[in-house]
Amino acid sequence: MHFIKHLRNLHVRSMFEKKYILSQARCLQTDVAQKTKPKKYKYPSVYDPYGSRPAPSEKVNQLAEQIITLTAEERAQIGPALREILKHPKLEKISTEGLDLGAAAAGTNTQAEEKKEEKTAFDVKLEKFDATSKLKVIKEVRALTSLGLKEAKELVEKAPVVLKQGLTKEEAEGIIEKIKAAGGAAIME
Q: pLDDT by residue (tens digit) across 83-108?
């Protein structure tokens, strides 16, 4: 009711708008008054989607006791024997090659090591150079990277730095030889 008093003092453009707003407010007020509190449902302490189950039969209890007395090797044979007797299809392993399994793929380290050995793209990294042959190394880097004199000088002074990336093994070895001839030391990564 207090809300409706404030609406009457509201400045509106026409009397029609004022009547419309007041009628809407009265409807809202009656809706709020008629609403009741929602029902609170009591949830079970343990959720069982299949409902309550009957207790296992005496025959099943005896079978469980017999399984407990078996050795680990004999228990391991139960699954394949049941699969054969019940004629279930044999489960095939799913190939995970090419999937990123994260830490779960710790057992596939041998495959990762083999892939590292088969590296096809190499980077050439300038490790160091003789101070006396700095100019020769800068000229060689400039020729290899097609940089300007200033950029090549800055690159050489930042050593150790990667000079070229994604090279074949032969190209990388050729560049390393040229840098060694100029007085620098480079490695292949």
A: 889 888 877 777 777 777 665 555 55
